[in-house]
Amino acid sequence: MPSKTFPINETVLFKSTKILSKLKEEMEIVKLYSSTKRNFDNVSEFTLALDLLYILDLIDIDLDNGVVKKC
Hints:
By secondary structure, the protein is α+β, with helices and mostly antiparallel strands.
């Protein structure tokens, strides 16, 4: 039977904490994905988590250099 709720560990909000815990210093986006991809269903979900962290002003993304860092 379908459920209207999701377990917290399946949410993007929860999964985004895996990015924060891995991001000790400035890191290339590709390397960050490689080191956290087991926590995400696909690259789209990883990107959504990055978007969420950026909107919450927890990370800064430098698209010119392809790097992410904590704010």
